[in-house]
Design a protein that fits this description.
Length: 189
């Protein structure tokens, strides 16, 4: 199957501080500055998924061009590179008591958590799709194939044709999402 990943490694590391007498973190003027705060790091790695190689380059960036891919080797006989990703989340929770100080049954505790979440912390450029002829996500092999040299040279401006074709082929959806940063809050009552 084309989604088969033989090896998957997931590691989640979590470190958080308690509050009150359970607090063991740094203090400033007897103030527990990291009370109810924490850090979570998730590391994921998996081996590449299979794809089917082809013998000759086909112009993936041109519409209506003839080109039939001829399979090289077996179906799903090649593999994408390994996928590696690190995510991180940092948070701090604040608790408040509301209600009448005289009536302890009427008092409620509210919590407010602020967090910063960074997906793909290292901004790893993981290929999720490759071109079958070259096995890379940024080049389908058409521009360097001797069979396409005549078509490229017959263009009005061969250099501009090559540059625009290369830019079109290097699609962002061939890679995993880049680093994304989220700042958020959770209110609980």
């Amino acid at each position: 199957m084309n989604y088969d990943a033989r090896h998957m490694i997931n590691v989640s590391l979590n470190y958080s501080y308690g509050s009150g007498k359970d607090y063991n973190g740094p203090t400033i003027k007897n103030k527990q500055i990291l009370a109810n705060a924490g850090l979570n790091v998730q590391v994921s790695a998996r081996s590449g998924t299979p794809y089917t190689e082809q013998i000759a380059a086909t112009p993936e960036g041109l519409e209506g061009q003839p080109g039939r891919p001829i399979t090289k080797g077996s179906i799903n006989g090649a593999r994408l590179p390994w996928y590696f990703r690190v995510n991180m989340r940092v948070w701090k929770e604040f608790t408040f008591k509301v209600g009448s100080k005289k009536d302890k049954e009427d008092r409620r505790e509210l919590s407010f958590e602020i967090y910063l979440q960074i997906q793909n912390l290292l901004n790893t450029k993981n290929p999720v799709s490759v071109y079958r002829y070259t096995g890379t996500p940024s080049d389908d092999g058409y521009l360097t194939d001797p069979a396409s040299a005549a078509a490229i040279q017959s263009a009005l401006n061969p250099q501009a044709y090559s540059d625009q074709y290369a830019a079109y082929i290097n699609r962002p959806d061939n890679y995993s999402l880049p680093r994304r940063i989220f700042l958020g809050a959770i209110f609980s009552f």
